[in-house]
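sry for the spam today, last one i promise. struct tokens for design, 675 residues
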């Protein structure tokens, strides 16, 4: 359900953006009149600035064009950037007056000079603010027939991706998991208490009374057409003593998640799927009917009914991130999302009812020519309801208000301290409960660090393969992937591996005067080589390879059925090299693919060019079957088919001749060391 807005404005400085899901009303009037004071919710005010009517009216068409399809976050950020420039213009004029220079008031895009660019650079203006003004200014100057400003702005600083060690990230994940399981347990206990399935204690009895009252009020309201009990409904008919006995917080939390639990569910899902935060926030619940599990983004796995596939959409990259997990795991992202949707479905029904009422009220206000402020307030209400009605991350406050997590507040806590975040609170709880100090403390992280950790985990578990990380993160270019892999954890790991490699290299040269690449790789990647591992490597290297690349445990004593005329003297070795007939000594190895493919092509040629009775009598058919079985069971079928085809071409062209007609020649060519 796209958000439909009507652009009712009294001046060119007021307009609605046309974003499909997150439109916002933009009011640029403050840049015309100036701002002396302002109440800022959950933040700090940057200070006053004077109005510049001519300048903002010049820029308004370009700003409207630039922001018309922007979401709320981008549009509001752009307005903040303009505030920075307006304050900077006041500061430039103030300094000009202080040094006694002629005052040139900045009232038009014609007044911009290199002086203003340099002043912005000296003031440390952010790259985003710099490019925001330059973009709309150049659009305006082109429309006025003026030359564009070729201002060179500040460079975007390269972010330092400081990622804690995996074991500390694991502690955060464990804390989130415990909190989520605690919430699930509370909701199950509420259902059991209502059904009388738990032993009654003093605490359980108080909880049961609250839950029973909530359900009674809810059922009474449903009979009158209302769906969700507000706090006034729950307290109706209670005196002061009874109000102390009943708690609306207990009532709501017995059936619905609160804001903290919505954040727990969201961050636990984020840590499990490795997505960016926005696609997870943008998952859209289908409210076209009243089915309690309308989750089109969540589907059964096509090849495994015990698993699911969760599909999101990344607006910026026009891509679809995927996640797969088990239905039976209650901490899997898909299962968490499904639980949130099912648990909050009554809240969603209430919102659908409120949306119908808000649309009707807005229609009446428009027909009655209500004030702009009134219609805009109603339109904002409609837009909010249309947005949150589809969100999986609904929750109920202790006052009975229905809200949802969004970009602005999924990570931040509603406190006066803007630096406090949900994850910081979790980390503080971990450090306090485990009494961690100094380097043992779990450091603060942000939500995006979960995606960094996911990429690092994938990188380590796939041998440092960037391709696997690129596929896991659903990137379209290696450049995006390498940005995620440029973090402290991987860089430290790479540095340690390089130092280990250098030390091992020098040590081997000093001790033995030669290099063993297998030992070097083992020491660098996995650590010390045990005695058992070294013995197995030695035994592996002692295995001799036949002409077709199959290892032989004892080439000095082939079975009689393979070579009936062989006489063992400790020097002579098997010269038939029909190794797939020798189940006693033959060892198929990774290096055997090419030789087996060659032998298969030879046997196919022999089968076409020999009498069938001779082919069977000399056990070529048995060797043919064994070779086919070895190829198909030990190697990829597509690779095997291509390898055999390549040898068939060589035989047909005369480049290679089947060994049946050149066995003596071959044995003469290859000596014992080349066996």
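last one done:
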């Amino acid at each position: 359900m796209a958000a439909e807005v009507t652009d009712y404005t009294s001046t060119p400085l007021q307009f609605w953006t046309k974003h499909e899901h997150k439109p916002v009303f933009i009011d640029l009037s403050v840049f015309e009149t100036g701002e002396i004071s302002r109440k800022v919710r959950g933040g700090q005010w940057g200070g006053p600035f004077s109005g510049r009517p001519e300048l903002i009216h010049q820029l308004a068409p370009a700003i409207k064009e630039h922001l018309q399809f922007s979401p709320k976050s981008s549009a509001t950020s752009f307005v903040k950037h303009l505030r920075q420039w307006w304050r900077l213009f006041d500061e430039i004029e103030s300094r000009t007056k202080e040094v006694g220079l002629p005052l040139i008031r900045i009232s038009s895009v014609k007044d911009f000079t290199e002086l203003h660019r340099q002043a912005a650079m000296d003031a440390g203006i952010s790259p985003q603010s710099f490019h925001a003004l330059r973009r709309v200014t150049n659009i305006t100057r082109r429309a006025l027939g003026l030359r564009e400003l070729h201002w060179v702005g500040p460079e975007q600083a390269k972010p330092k991706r400081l990622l804690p060690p995996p074991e500390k990230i694991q502690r955060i994940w464990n804390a989130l998991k415990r909190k989520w399981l605690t919430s699930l347990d509370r909701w199950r206990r509420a259902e059991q208490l209502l059904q009388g399935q738990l032993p009654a204690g003093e605490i359980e009895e108080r909880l049961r009374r609250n839950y029973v009252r909530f359900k009674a009020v809810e059922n009474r309201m449903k009979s009158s057409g209302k769906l969700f009990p507000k706090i006034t409904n729950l307290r109706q008919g209670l005196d002061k003593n009874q109000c102390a006995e009943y708690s609306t917080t207990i009532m709501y939390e017995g059936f619905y998640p609160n804001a903290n639990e919505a954040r727990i569910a969201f961050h636990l899902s984020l840590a499990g799927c490795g997505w960016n935060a926005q696609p997870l926030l943008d998952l859209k619940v289908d409210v076209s009917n009243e089915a309690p599990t309308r989750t089109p983004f969540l589907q059964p796995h096509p090849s495994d009914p015990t698993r699911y596939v969760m599909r999101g959409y990344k607006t910026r990259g026009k891509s679809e991130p995927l996640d797969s997990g088990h239905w039976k795991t209650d901490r899997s992202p898909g299962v968490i999302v499904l639980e949130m949707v099912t648990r909050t479905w009554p809240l969603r029904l209430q919102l659908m009812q409120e949306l119908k009422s808000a649309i009707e009220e807005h229609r009446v206000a428009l027909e009655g020519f209500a004030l702009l402020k009134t219609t805009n307030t109603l339109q904002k209400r409609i837009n909010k309801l249309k947005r949150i009605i589809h969100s999986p991350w609904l929750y109920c406050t202790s006052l009975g208000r229905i809200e949802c997590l969004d970009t602005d507040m999924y990570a931040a806590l509603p406190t006066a301290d803007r630096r406090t975040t949900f994850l910081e609170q979790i980390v503080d709880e971990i450090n306090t409960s485990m009494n961690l100090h100094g380097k043992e403390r779990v450091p603060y992280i942000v939500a995006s660090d979960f995606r960094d950790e996911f990429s690092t985990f994938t990188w380590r578990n796939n041998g440092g393969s960037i391709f696997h990380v690129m596929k896991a993160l659903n990137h379209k270019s290696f450049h995006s992937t390498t940005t995620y892999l440029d973090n402290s954890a991987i860089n430290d790991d790479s540095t340690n591996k390089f130092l280990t490699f250098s030390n091992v290299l020098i040590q081997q040269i000093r001790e033995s005067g030669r290099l063993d690449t297998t030992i070097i790789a083992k020491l660098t990647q996995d650590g010390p080589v045990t005695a058992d591992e070294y013995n197995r490597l030695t035994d592996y290297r002692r295995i001799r390879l036949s002409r077709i690349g199959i290892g032989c445990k004892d080439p000095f004593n082939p079975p009689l059925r393979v070579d009936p005329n062989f006489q063992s003297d400790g020097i002579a070795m098997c010269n038939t090299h029909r190794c797939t007939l020798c189940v006693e000594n033959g060892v198929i190895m990774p290096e055997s693919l090419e030789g087996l493919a060659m032998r298969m092509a030879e046997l196919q040629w022999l089968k076409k060019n020999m009498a069938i009775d001779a082919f069977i009598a000399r056990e070529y058919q048995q060797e043919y079957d064994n070779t086919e079985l070895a190829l198909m069971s030990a190697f990829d079928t597509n690779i095997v088919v291509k390898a055999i085809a390549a040898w068939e071409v060589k035989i047909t062209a005369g480049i290679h001749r089947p060994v049946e007609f050149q066995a003596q020649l071959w044995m003469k060519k290859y000596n014992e060391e080349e066996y």
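The chain has a mean pLDDT of 84. ok im logging off now
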